[in-house]
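Q: What would this complex look like in 3D?
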Amino acid sequence: MDMHVPGFGHGLDEALLIEWAAGVGDRVERGDVVAVVETDKASTEIVAERDGRVTTHAAAVGTILRSGDVLYQLAAD
Amino acid sequence: MLVARAVDEEAHRLQKQGALDLWPSCQGQEAAQVGSALAVGPAPAVFPSYREHAVALLRGVAPDELFAQWAGRTFCGWDPRRLRFFPYTLVLAAQTLHGVGYSIGQRLQGLEDFVVVYVGDGATSEGDMSEAMNLAAVESASVLFVCQNNGWAISKPAEEQMRTSVAVRARGFGIESVRVAGQDPETVFSACSRAAAHIREERAPYLVEIQVGRIQGHTTSDAQEVYRSRDDLTKTRAADPVIAYAARLSDLGVVDAAWLDAVDTEVRELCERLQKEYA
Amino acid sequence: MSPVRSAGLAESINATLADLLEQDPRLLLLGEDIGRLGGVFRVTRGLRERFGEDRVRDSLLAESTIVGQAVGMAMSGLVPVCEIQFDGFTYPAVNQLVTQAARIGGRWNGQVSPSLVVRIPTGGGFRGVEHHSESNEALFARYPNISVACPSTGEDAEQILRYAVTLGSPVVMYEPIRLYWQRNLPARDPGPARTPTAARIVRRGTDLTIATFGAVTHEVLEAAHALSPDVDVEVVDLRWVAPLDMDTVLESVARTGRLLIVHEASKDVGIGAEIAASVAEHGFGSLRGPVRRLAPDRRVYPPADFEKDYLTVGVQEIKDEVLVMTE
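A: Here is my prediction, written as structure tokens for the whole assembly.
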């Protein structure tokens, strides 16, 4: 299933993708860090919203993410 | 003290004539004001409340300049910058934060940062007073808080305003403090001299709480007979610091009748000039 | 017209403050968490490292303390630029601003001219919790000697700040939170303002004038662009709500004959009411129809789930209002 870039609060809707913490094929549990991003405010982590296996990265490191865009795909257990 | 008393009494007469709109009396607080002002000397900037008339006169404010705002001519009748006696502030305790901020600002610029802030007991209930004490403490600002506790916030007696003295409260903020009787200017002078030395040495704030009597009402608009007992008023007048100190100096032979007569003449001329200006 | 990508408001203000700190040794910044953290919105990011903790001062968490000590600092010859963390936390500082900062110039018979600036993040639309989405500029607009600026772009914020630190009386500058990091904004006419305090005509038009300010200026522009060419809307970005540049508004209304005022703060006794009254007094003869206001009703800013119902100043509502007025 498609997992989306969340909102970052206070009207922040963009962030720079710094690093994928969960690689394609990795299994994640809800709350695990999937990616590290940098907003205009601070460095922050995007965490898994549910358990599953990461099947696709939809963005490359160094690109600007927008809230609501697809970030990665997850296969539920 | 005698001049301040005479000026204060003239203000009452002029107010009764309708020449002044209002007058907040300092009668009963002269020893506290003169003792504290002489102890710190002319260097510190003074942030008064609005009845520090004796301090004003010592700083060089002319009596007619002092009256100007109470006659509706201006918000400040003197030159605050030159005299380092800043304008009266009528919103209670607002000046306490200005004083601390000024001291910090002066220090940042390498200038004289010793500041004296006057406040009454009533104003210590304001949040700004607590905020100013805390700010002065954490910034270690060179601020002398002088609280003249005249026992009344208009009609609210001090014992209904606070559960500890203001001096004890200051210590809760980490500010050294002392509480002294305000009848004798020499007692006040000594306490404030020690406080000033502490501020200069430690570059930290200090609070002196001075217990004074309030002889007149809060202002000329106040009717203190409504809420104060005859007995209380009699006792307060009997403890008049001006009369007591003049008597003491006479007894000690420091001043004689001729000196007192000369002061009498001086204040009579002063009052005549004030009448000419305002009546 | 396609959107234009520009520096965010936070970035512009940061650069301006850095330059002002560089230029004027009397200038200092004062506010909650503005130093180590760089401010909750990072507007002052990096400034403490660059200019030191004496000049970029992490204040106590007390708004009266911030403005009260700034008044004292101004008396000592400094130029304090304060930050209040959120609009809704301004109220403890109101006494110091209104009865003190605004009045000491007069009380000192001109011997003190406090160039004291208070920056306040403002406005809603970002799912803020209680007190974090307010717009209280009209409160200060009522008081003499307080100037109130509401920039809608980083460029205007820069011009306003540079002017404010030289003015000699307090300036409150409202910074729309939702513009801090917004980089894609509707295009606007690039014409410069006549003076630092003048309004700016950000879109020329012939059919109707919209006077507005702050974040919602962008919704107004978007609506105006969308309505073109059927309705040709002129947009006046007031930039300051006190003093108001009524000359620019009246000149615009004289050309278009219609006036709509749009703002995010509630309507009653608001900036829009003042503008409408002034136009009724001085520009009635140019009007082809009644002046109207589009602004939220007078009620408490609601919990985030309901803010869309409260903020009745979206692009669609603005378009609808214009169409009603020009049909």
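A: To summarize the key features: The interface with chain B takes residues 28, 54, 60, 62, 64-65, 68-78, 92, 95-96, 99-100, 103-104, 106-109, 111 of chain C (CB under 8 Å). The mean pLDDT of chain C is 96.
Q: Very helpful, thank you.
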